[in-house]
Design a protein that fits this description.
The protein has 12 helices and 8 strands. It is α+β, with helices and mostly antiparallel strands and about 300 residues long. It has 2 domains: about 110 residues, no CATH class; about 190 residues, 2-Layer Sandwich (Alpha-Beta Plaits), CATH 3.30.70.1230. Strands 1, 2, 3, 4, 5, 6, 7 and 8 form an 8-stranded mixed sheet that branches. Strand 2 and strand 3 form a beta hairpin. It is globular.
């Protein structure tokens, strides 16, 4: 038993050590952040981190990673975690991170310490009635259904959004200014409008991919919530218990809005809709769990009801 534990510990330590590929990436990021070789990144370097991910070389690497099979993938770079593709890239450090299993270690461990506060778009998409439906499916069938849903989400959201969460039958995507508008140094009016329009387009495309608007019933019922506001993005927690994610009222509100959406619907917060050229649907005052006051939002339905 002692030998087994020693072997397991040694393997874990080896996996936590940066690979040659990760060390080279860190060197390039350090240079991009205008640091001296070997100088550590600080919390002030988050803008450089996001911008580094939009450089031509970084984009080329992401295209290659996303071309490899299969779902699930890193929510930032698209590196596969399963199948042949996962086995190919794992030695390079593209394995699920200990801080967030929906992101790879290569992306998370490269990030500066702490985090950054920024305006961000948040999208939540949830499968309606999945629990009851899965009762009539085998575990393999239920898993295959979820993987198809995740696959649709990945095809729609990449490369502009960061998929921060795959929570059972729910997907959470983040829209950061530096990712949506490469080269942007601030979240100004134009960037906000670009993010808002993109999020609404992505919501519609995801619904279409699962079958809404087609001649047959959708393969799954999906409800979506959208919001836009300030969030803290980075490493949350202490050294022993931590997560790489986003927190803030905008995240909670997007999740609550999603809970208000029926299958085939998108519920858009008024603060996101303010950046759209055309207001989607009719304004409603929604009573959301955990909110003292009603939240103004628009209920959008492009497709005829299937229920």
């Amino acid at each position: 038993m002692g030998d087994d534990r020693s072997s397991s510990t040694g393997k874990g330590e080896a996996e936590r050590r940066p690979t040659l590929w990760q060390r080279r990436a860190l060197k390039s990021l350090t240079k991009h952040a205008r640091k001296h070789p070997g100088e550590p990144l600080t919390q002030d370097d988050w803008e450089s981190y996001w911008q580094f991910g939009t450089q031509p070389t970084s984009r080329a690497v992401k295209r290659v990673l996303r071309a490899l099979p299969s779902t699930p993938r890193c929510g930032y770079c698209g590196a596969p975690f399963a199948g042949l593709g996962g086995r190919i890239v794992k030695p390079l450090g593209y394995r699920p991170s200990r801080k967030n299993p929906n992101l790879c270690a290569a992306c998370v461990e490269l990030a500066p310490p702490g985090g950054t506060t920024t305006d961000v778009g948040v999208l939540f998409a949830d499968l309606r009635g999945f629990t009851s439906r899965s009762e009539g499916l085998t575990p393999a069938e239920a898993t295959a259904l979820l993987r198809r849903f995740y696959g649709h989400a990945e095809k729609v959201f990449f490369p502009e959004a960061l998929i921060d969460k795959l929570i059972g039958d729910e997907v959470m995507a983040l829209y950061l200014p530096a990712l949506v508008v490469p080269g942007s140094t601030s979240a100004g009016e134009v960037t906000h409008r670009t993010i808002a329009a993109l999020m609404l387009d992505h919501a519609k495309e995801l619904l279409q991919r699962v079958g809404y608007g087609s001649h047959h019933a959708p393969e799954v019922e999906v409800g979506i919530g959208l919001d836009f506001g300030e969030a803290f993005i980075g490493n949350i927690g202490n050294e022993s218990v931590h997560d790489f994610t986003a927190i803030g009222d905008v995240v909670n509100t997007a999740s609550r809005l999603q809970a208000q959406a029926s299958g085939g619907e998108v519920v858009v917060s008024a603060r996101l809709a303010a950046y759209l050229d055309d207001l989607p649907g009719d304004l409603e005052q929604l009573e959301l769990k955990g909110k003292q006051d009603a939240v103004p939002a628009y209920r959008v339905r492009w497709f005829a009801s299937t229920t």
